[in-house]
Amino acid sequence: CLADLRVTDPRDDKKRIEKTMGGLLKDSYKWILDHADFQRWRNDEQSRLLWIKGDPGKGKTMLLCGIVNELNNSMTKTDQLSYFFCQATDSRIRSATTVLQGLLYLLIDQQRSLISHIRKKYDHAGKALFEDANAWVALSEIFTNILQDSNLNTTYVIIDALDECVVDLSKLLDFIVQESCVSSRVKWIVSSRNWPDIEERLERAGHKVRLSLELNAESVSTAVSIFIQNRVRQLAKRKDYDDKTRDAVLGHLSLHANDTFLWVALVCQNLEDTLRWDTLAKLNAFPPGLDSLYERMMQQICNSGYADLCKRILASTAIVYRPITLEELTSLTEIPEGIANNLQSLRGIIGLCGSFLTIRGDTVYFVHQSAKDFLFTNAFNEIFPSGTEEAHYIVFSRSLQVMSKTLRRDMYSLPDSDPLAASRYSCIYWVNHLCDCNPNSSAHHRIDLRDGGAIENFIRKKYLHWLEALSLCRSMSEGVLAMAKLNALAQRRADSPIFVELLQDARLFIMYHVQAIQNSPLQVYVSALIFSPDRSLIRSYFKEEEPKWISIKPAIGDQWSACLQTLEGHSDCVHSVAFSHDSTRLASVSSDKRVKIWDASSGECLQTLEGHSDWVRSVAFSHDSTRLASASYDETTVKIWDASSGECLRTLKGHSNSVRSVAFSHDSTRLASASSDKTVKIWDASSGECLQTLKGHSDCVRLVAFSHDSAQLASVSDNKTVKI
């Protein structure tokens, strides 16, 4: 259970971060330990949340590393400390769900009895508990239960770099605000950049303390000076500087650091690679300020003999949707063959990309989020001379090439170490890059979306191999969405009827057989083919792949069934369904007491909402698609949910019998409910206040609906009447 929960060990992340910065210096962070705001958070029971905020490179992460050390050394044996370091450049540790996983991992590793809170769900769901669409809902509930456990003593929870939580940040912020108000035994510290949206959400928290690094410039300046002295001492020893060189480096760093730790670290990294005798000549080339330093790094790249190659590498790593491995990079970027076939040489080229990139293991990351931001702002014209759309097209085009070259039937039948190593990223994201290159806006790009184009050829020859690869990558739901996006792009073309027909058939093929292929990749060549219609284009193109040992094949018919998908997951009768008004999601309610939200394209269950204690009979989306209402027999209630986070926002009570139907007004401000108590109630959808109770029916009211101008309401009853 603990092994499946672990996505990273935050203790190892902390060591890595400290090592990258040249070690953690107590003298550079001890100022915060005596700061009045920190002391208030530490000693005042009512001050439960400390928010440390500051601009990029100001040392927020190292401050929190120091605070972790201080708390570890000073807290009692029964106290708990859990922490997590978000990094936008690392796909493992940049989502709200993985933050909770990391925090839970440390808490349970320290107090093993807490694992009972996970066991209740894990024994039923297994590893899927941490991986499926409901992972956030399940983990947030588990985390809440642990924080409320009577056996839990004083607990410190620390989350660094909220601004680098790029997936579901709003959920994480709302969770922190909610949980920081629950117990005085649990103290929270978070850090982030000075982002208004983060400030707006954290403002809702009571009992909070705010510490701005910009308002403590003198303390930060002193800390940076200490950091500089330490790094120069390390450099002088490693590079054998004489006194003159050492003093010159110390003076330049002190004069130009602008109280920015990251600037110092990047300059020192450059000096590590500078010959000792050339240090003084190179020193003045390092300008003050992060942006100026990035400008210099960019200028060095432009003046080097590998300028074009470095720019191509930077462009690719900047636009990909997750960090890519060195092998994936060779597939997505045009790299000379002699370098592409030698990973050690490729590592050397990455090292020539200024200090923008770093390699951990075999994966390429940005050294800091601010480095990536710089490429999209100040260096945009250098890195994307033809715009990001062209960069996306290049990645799309090369993805199609590498998949066409490497994908085959039964990928793992040959003794390759990893036959998907070079194409794994391409298999999952090629359509995303096609969409982002805006293919219908360019005559050059439109070629791929026509009859006989590159995509049609790929579908005809490699479609089943691609589906097998998606299954091996555990990414079948991404494949369903990819085909939906491809169909949407093709529908805009009136000049490619053959291509459009092929895509429609390919989409139906994956939608019908997604479960079988997901469970067993090679079923794409067996059950998926023989249970497809006789006139299916995909079946006809891959006729030779059908199993020869099946002599009597089922009679399926000529055409696909009108039923696109069958969504399975409820354990009892399903009573009601509703599409969100943006048509992206579908909600269903059941006698199993649950509300489920599904992705309308892929059929994937996004969330399971639990909270009702009896049958759920009706469901409705608000017209802005942000909220969901459900009506139940339990205590005659209506619940309003946040459609994104799954949080129950309101429980509306007032009916004296079961609630049969709910409906939002078209302006999303009101909610109507109909009940077996013969009444209709109108509620304020935001506050939950009952605005009106409408009486007049002499029997159970079954359904209710608003007019499109939200001015009128209709209700139907068992007494054979409709009332407006």
Automatic annotation (TrEMBL):
Name of this protein = NACHT domain-containing protein
Gene3D superfamilies linked to this entry: P-loop containing nucleotide triphosphate hydrolases, YVTN repeat-like/Quinoprotein amine dehydrogenase
CDD domains documented for this protein: WD40
Superkingdom is: Eukaryota
Repeat among keywords: yes
Keyword line: Repeat, WD repeat
- Native source organism of the sequence: Zopfia rhizophila CBS 207.26
Enumerate the WD repeat regions by residue range: 567-608, 609-651, 652-693, 694-724
Q: Which SUPFAM superfamilies match?
A: P-loop containing nucleoside triphosphate hydrolases, WD40 repeat-like
Q: Which residues form the NACHT domain?
A: 48-269
Q: Which InterPro entries match?
A: GPIID_WHD, NACHT_NTPase, NPHP3-like_N, P-loop_NTPase, WD40/YVTN_repeat-like_dom_sf, WD40_PAC1, WD40_repeat_CS, WD40_repeat_dom_sf
